[in-house]
Amino acid sequence: MLTARELLNIHFDQVFRGYNASQVDAFMARLVGEYESLMQENNALKAAALKVDTQVVADPAESIDQQMMIQQVTEAQIQLTQLEQEIKTAQLELRLIADEKTTLLAQLRALIQDFTALLAQSEPSSHNADPVVAASTPTVSK
């Protein structure tokens, strides 16, 4: 399971046509905060549930409190599961972004190579008179 510290230390490479870095940072900060809160709440509720499990319930009012704590633990576990799913979805999106980055870089490299090849082909003829330039240049007759 990911820890809040691991979430804080995630770094995303910048890409030409990627997501807005400040928005990703803001989302990650929010995600880390919520994740930490849920983890703390979950741990506290687990500890409370364990404590309740070890006590003998003598008063019916305590039984109701125990049921409420169990319900809170269950709700916290559901929230944790939902957050874990959101994290998995975000990780999948990041993988897709990385794949798109790789594809775009390959396309860019191919375009640069094609452009370089075209430039190399046109350089030898640039020393000769360009027919378009020659036709548009006025001649002076004496």
List the keywords.
single chain; 142 residues; mainly alpha; rod-shaped
How would you describe this structure to a colleague?
The chain is mainly alpha-helical and 142 residues long. The protein has one domain. It contains 4 helices and no strands. The chain has helices at residues 4-8, 21-54, 60-126, 131-136. Helix 2 (21-54) runs antiparallel to helix 3 (60-126). The longest helix is centred in the middle third of the chain and has 67 residues, at 60-126. The model has no long low-confidence stretch (mean pLDDT 79).
Topology of this protein?
Layout: H1 4-8, H2 21-54, H3 60-126, H4 131-136
Helix pairs in contact: 2-3
Identify the quaternary structure here.
Answer: single chain
Largest sheet: none
Secondary-structure element sequence?
HHHH
Amount of beta strand: under 5%
Gyration radius from CA atoms, angstroms:
32 Å
Number of helices: 4
Number of domains: 1
First and last CA, distance: 89 Å
The SS-based structural class is mainly alpha
Q: pLDDT below 50 for ≥5 consecutive residues: which ranges? A: none
The proportion of residues forming helix, as a percent range, comes to over 70%
Number of strands: 0
Shape: rod-shaped
